[in-house]
Amino acid sequence: GPKKRLLTGIVIEYFFAFGQMILLIFAYFIRSWRILTLSITLFTVPYIFFYFILPESPRWLISKGRFDEGEKILRHIAKINNRVFNNDAYKKLKDEQIKNMSEKNHQQGIRSLFQSKIMTFISINLFFQWLVQNLIFYGISQSTGSWQLNPYLSFGVSAFVELLSYIFVHLILDRIGRKIPYVCFLILFCIVSILILPIEYLMEKDGKGQLLLLNIINGTLKFLSSGSYAIIYIYANELFPTNVRNTGMGICSMIARIGAIIGTYSNDNLTRLWIHLPILFYGSVSIIAALLALIFPETLNQPLPQTVDDVEKMNLINIRIYRSKRLFNDNIQLNEQSVERFTNYINPQFDNNENQYNKEQVVRL
């Protein structure tokens, strides 16, 4: 539900920071990069066994027509939660999905991301946001060697600042929303990056005061880039409709790697022209991303969009886009609300409003 989305999204970022701290410990004691690489890859071995332990999503199985597998997992969930499996409710859900899948125009996948003008704009905008976020995040992260500190200390401070940023985001995102913090992080990133100029030209060259302020600016940029990165990860999940969320997030992740590559090469090539040019470049693209992000709708306390039609009902600020002709039939999507209500019945810990249903009676879909 809406109250748990932030927690599930930010926990991933916490472990990202913890992983960097663990890497620091390994790197400090293992100075050979080959042995270090081999050592940290051993952590991935247990994940092989997750395939045999973790169950598949019953919602996904049902949406793909794998009803027997979905029913088996739902019965197991009901048993764990001491609930009675509702055969009638599941049969109704199954019949509804079979009807939906029989429609000739039932299409999902990458084309749905460009099904209308509004969906196209949101998709392309999110792709750009992810590119920018990875560009500035990895660009700043990989520049820790310029912090005028011991490289191990610099990396440790960077990881700690990143963790603080995630904690801060966790505290504010459910209070003031997604869009305002995201835009503010980007604008502040641009402003702080510009402060490089007066520090460089108005202060004593390589003086203690200048070096101190440069380290503070680098730490602040790391804080801001980490925060905006965490927010866009959650924000994108709440903007893509359920039927193409995996596809949309997959494309975002792919394009993000391009941003990371650009950030890496920027640190190398732009520094040759001027040592602070990469920072100014990151600030420039961040302000562009901030302006484009203003158009996104707010998703705080809003239900996840299930279809492209749900996305179009969101309010896009400062832009008027008329609906284009539908590429696909609007009424053939899986009734996600029915699935959610059914799973809430057999798994009460995910039910945000347990009083809504009489648990002694049959659930009505």
UniProtKB/TrEMBL annotation:
Signal peptide: none
GO molecular function, one term: transmembrane transporter activity
Biological source species: Rotaria sordida
Domain of life, source organism: Eukaryota
Main localization (coarse): membrane
Segments passing through the bilayer: 7-29, 35-54, 118-140, 152-173, 180-199, 211-236, 248-267, 273-296
Protein name, entry field: Major facilitator superfamily (MFS) profile domain-containing protein
Record-annotated Major facilitator superfamily (MFS) profile domain positions: 1-301
Xref: Pfam families: Sugar_tr
Keywords: Membrane, Transmembrane, Transmembrane helix
PANTHER family: SOLUTE CARRIER FAMILY 22 MEMBER
GO cellular component: membrane
Membrane topology: Multi-pass membrane protein
Stored PROSITE patterns: MFS
UniProt lineage: Eukaryota, Metazoa, Spiralia, Gnathifera, Rotifera
Protein localization: Membrane
